[in-house]
Design goal:
The complex is a heterodimer.
Chain A (H helix, E strand, L loop, with lengths): L12 E5 L2 E12 L2 E11 L2 E6 L14 E5 L4 H10 L6 E2 L7 H5 L4 E6 L3 E7 L11 H9 L3 H7 L5 E3 L11 H4 L11 H11 L7 E6 L3 H15 L3 E6 L2 H12 L8 E7 L11 H5 L12 H11 L4 H17 L4 E6 L1 E6 L2 E2 L13 E2 L8
Parallel strand pairs in A: 10-11, 10-12
Antiparallel strand pairs in A: 1-4, 2-3, 4-5, 6-14, 7-14, 8-12, 8-13, 9-13, 15-16
Chain B lengths: L1 H4 L8 E5 L5 H9 L1 E2 L1 E3 L5 E3 L2 E8 L2 E6 L13 H11 L19 E6 L2 E5 L7 H4 L4 E2 L2 H6 L4 H4 L7
Antiparallel strand pairs in B: 2-9, 3-4, 5-6, 6-8, 7-8
Classes of the chains: A alpha+beta, B alpha+beta.
């Protein structure tokens, strides 16, 4: 990350004012081999300015904007109000919640832009949980069969999500990863779920503790309702806010103490669609996985090592497919959905969204935009 | 700089952004810095600061740069710039905030085989290395001298790339 302005690189813009940095704390996942992740707290100046780099080599891409200002002094709610009702204050708001999509669509000055990202919203299943049979594949499959993904996508996300089959989010570029016999989401099948759950449970089970990062509280509520209805199970929802989220991530990464939940809902993305297991499947299941909650699985490690050994793209796709299929069949996570990323964008901004990042190199504004009048 | 840009037909106007995404630090990096690869709108890894690449064998990745590319301060981008970026990165046990999974094996050696050509010699095959190069930021000499990734701020590059 870049801690100060300066002409440091060859990117399409130059950092002219401010910075966007992090304070980080290490959380060690394994000592042999050494692996870790970093717990992050943001450190941004109230305002950050990018100016076009006139020497950027790829003129076909851009930059097409003279200047970009990031305002870090506004809350997301304030920004959403400004982009919808004013011009010249805020042009783009990222990460718009699905619940605010209609407000943007009806805004006087804004429009809604959606992109299917390489991100998965899934539940980490604590395979070490005491008092619940989550070490048993049947119980994990039961959880997956108990969730009505189509209803969740419709009612909680207003259609701005896709049901998840496995951990590879469905995008045009990940389609080959999921073929042949493309993986389908676990069906919503409460009788089958109940039957599997009963086979796995030995004695009266305790309540299931479903924890969630605060952004997905509504999703957790809906999933909890489905689990109660389908499995006849008591479900306690725990919403993690602020520093609780950092602590939960640390505890999960380090695996030194028992987790205080049985399923933890979180969202994880991949920086590219070429090999999603690097950042998704490995994180949830692998030896070095910062989200793994349970024993290391030799078969997963074998499949992952096979992916690493491939340098040909076609063979990588096949290896990714095998990993996703294994993780799905073993129900090594609660596969929920792949939410779209929504942007509120001023009507005179021609914004080009990216599936794995936020980049403005090829975004432009029309002559009617406030900055060009 | 602004006067020079005024002549560019596509560079016009300004936007104001509010980005609550906790990865904002990374988006700012991607806007101002290049890596050997970038990721397309659809999510595909493709060359960026490099012109092309080729696997010589399953442990040797050859990268060719464009000629005449320059950093924003005017310094030419050469094979030495890439080698410096790689060598700076492997000084640290865990330079990348997401974690060690983005590390390129620290036993890897980067050699300059021409003014605009480098080779990465891996100790064992790593088909994921191309994607991992997205986290290897190619920076100017001035950056390494004056700022670095956390060097000036924390006197360490751990967790700060």
């Amino acid at each position: 990350m870049i801690d100060a302005p300066g002409p440091w690189g060859t990117g399409p813009f130059v950092l002219a004012e401010g910075y966007s940095s992090l304070d980080t704390e290490q959380a060690v996942v394994t000592h042999d081999p050494f692996s870790c992740t970093w717990l992050q707290r943001q450190d941004r100046t109230p305002r950050l300015t990018l100016r076009a780099n006139p020497t950027y080599w790829d003129k076909l891409r851009g930059p097409r904007l003279r200047e970009v200002v990031f305002r870090n002094d506004l809350s997301a709610q304030e920004a959403l109000e400004l982009v919808c009702t004013t011009e010249g204050e805020v042009d783009i708001v990222t990460e718009v919640p699905a619940t605010a999509a209609a407000k943007v669509q009806h805004g006087e000055h804004a429009r809604l832009v959606a992109v299917n990202p390489v991100r998965a919203l899934a539940g980490v299943i604590n395979r070490d949980a005491e008092g619940l049979p989550l070490h048993d594949r049947r119980a994990r499959q039961a959880l997956n069969l108990a969730v009505d993904r189509a209803g969740l996508v419709r009612d909680v996300f207003g259609g701005h999500a896709r049901p998840l089959a496995g951990l590879t989010p469905p995008t045009p570029l990940t389609a080959p990863h999921r073929a042949p016999d493309r993986l389908k989401p676990y069906p919503y099948d409460p009788p089958a779920a109940r039957q599997l759950w009963r086979q796995a449970v030995n004695g009266p089970p305790r309540a299931l503790r479903l924890a969630t990062m605060a952004d997905f509280e509504a999703t957790a509520g809906r999933v909890a309702d489905d689990l109660r209805t389908s499995l006849g199970l008591d479900v306690e929802v725990i919403v993690l806010r602020g520093d609780e989220q950092v602590q939960a991530r640390r505890q999960l990464a380090e695996k030194l103490e028992p987790q205080t939940w049985d399923v933890l809902l979180l969202e994880q993305g991949s920086q590219a669609a070429d090999t999603p297991p690097l950042e998704l499947h490995r994180a949830f299941v692998g030896l070095t996985g910062e989200f793994r909650a349970g024993p290391v699985l030799a078969e997963f490690e074998r499949l992952y090592a096979d992916l690493v050994a491939q340098t040909a793209q076609a063979k990588q796709v096949i290896a990714c497919n095998r990993i996703d299929r294994y993780v799905t069949q073993e129900a090594l996570a609660l596969f929920v959905c792949a939410p779209q990323v929504l942007y509120a964008v001023n009507r005179h901004v021609d914004f080009k969204p990216y599936a794995t990042s936020f980049e403005l190199v090829d975004t432009s504004v029309t002559p009617r935009h406030w900055s060009r009048r | 700089m602004l006067a020079a840009m005024a002549g560019h037909p596509r560079t016009a106007g300004a936007v104001t952004v509010v980005d609550p995404n906790p990865l904002n630090w990374l988006w700012i990096t991607y806007h101002t810095v290049e890596e050997l690869v970038r990721v397309t709108k659809q999510g595909k890894v493709r060359p960026a600061a490099m012109r092309r690449y080729r696997w010589i064998d399953d442990r040797t990745l050859q990268v060719r740069l464009r000629r005449d590319e320059r950093f924003a301060d005017g310094e030419p981008v050469t094979a030495d710039s890439v080698k410096r970026a790689f060598d700076e990165q492997v000084r640290w046990v865990s330079p990348h905030p997401p974690g060690t999974h983005l590390n390129i094996d620290r036993r890897t050696r980067c050699s300059v085989s021409g003014p605009h050509t480098v080779r990465f010699h891996l100790p064992e095959p790593d088909g994921l290395v191309l994607g991992k190069l997205r986290a290897t930021h190619v920076m100017s000499s001035r950056f390494w001298r004056d700022l670095g990734f956390g060097y000036a701020r924390d006197e360490s590059g751990e967790g700060h790339w």
